[in-house]
Amino acid sequence: MQKGKPIQQRYGSGRKSQNLNLQKKLVIIGAGFLLLVASLAGVGFIVYKALGHSDFFQITSTSIQGCRRTTKNLILEMSGVDVYSNLLALDPGRVRAGIAANEWVESVEIVKDWPNRLTIVVKERLPVAIASLDDGLFYLDQNGVAFTRVLPPEDMDYPLITGLKREDWPRTLKDSQLGEALQFLKYAGQGSSILPKQNISELHLDGAENITLYLVDRPFPIHLGSGRVGGKYNWLTKVLYKLYKSKEFEKTAYVRMDYGRNQVLIGFDEMVQDR
Questions:
Q1: Kind and range of the H or E element at 79?
Q2: 108 and 143, same structural domain?
């Protein structure tokens, strides 16, 4: 009896074929999806371009708020917005950058009011002092930025800060003489009748550890030293109050707030004594 050939069976060949077919289908579906997305993107771009030139989104009203030193006409000119501008195509970043180029402008907010109104809100820098530098006088804001030159007959009724040099300008106000000087002015601007900001003529920074204050009504030196700004301001108001009340203010030659902790040295034209 002749033996037949052994029967050989292969396992997995059908499953492999199914996997290949599935992969092909996925590739086709993926390619179709990408083609659909690209088509939609192209159509969307065409529609966006068309709407970007549509009269429906043409800006009919531009409201400008926050102008004090600047003017609405100047801000509008720097914004680049005109009667041909389209609200949909308008680039807020470009408008913001154009306006922020003005030295008086600290920040700009752009608000789109659909479909055709635009609001520009300007926050201007507020000068708190005038800095005397080698190249002239500059307005100084509360952040220690000397942002624009003072050109007469502009308002110069601000305390003068002297002793500053651009090459020595602090990178941060923290733990700096400039920061302490601005902090002192902040305390003075809170409404004290004894030492108001209006009665501060000059704050001189010596670059070391002393700030010297000069008053408007009588410019004798008041040596503030460094540190404990709030405490020294409050203490100085009490000292000045006593000097005004005792009629000794006109005889005062100097005041040293840096004489010692919890001590003030007052010098008079006729004599020197501790207070």
A1: helix 72-79
A2: no
